[in-house]
Amino acid sequence: MMNRHEFIAGLKKKLRKLPYDEIKEAVDFYEGYFDDAGEENEQVVLSELGSPSAVASEIIANFAVKKVDSKEPGSKSWRTTWLVILALFASPIAIPVVLSVSIVILALLIALFSVLLSFLATGAAMFFGGVACVIAGLMVVFQSVPTTIFYVGVGMILIGAGAATIIGTVKLSKLCFNRLTKIIGGFILRRKSK
Question: For residues 151 and 134, is the Cβ–Cβ distance under 8 A?
């Protein structure tokens, strides 16, 4: 049977990817929980808490969601995503279920990435096509002024549309990334609370 010290050691091991302050706060909380229950109720507390992996998974998921919600300048969203993935694998779920969910999530991420990449490529093509139209228009300025005006006008429209598409795609990518991280974190939290 596990004792208090083994539980705390297992919890520290599972939380090693979190910042030191988060680990200390979690360990202090559970140490206090054990202290409040008393030594005679140690086994009751252990059965109530479950495995260190399950507790660590919930702490990591809470940290990831909190990190996404805080709009700290310079916060690293990619680190939050990895923490959510770590929380998913740290939880005591059957390996086939984890693999299935991981494959579905990976397929969705690849599809989302492909769509965003195609929008970005379309924006870049319009932008550079617009630049080419402006250059072509300026090359025929001495032969036909109306043709120059037409090409330069079309080129400017394409440059504007391309730039807007690129900027919109970058903003959409950021929004999708943050939402996806919140959804995965929320899913993990809901699974843990059941």
Answer: yes
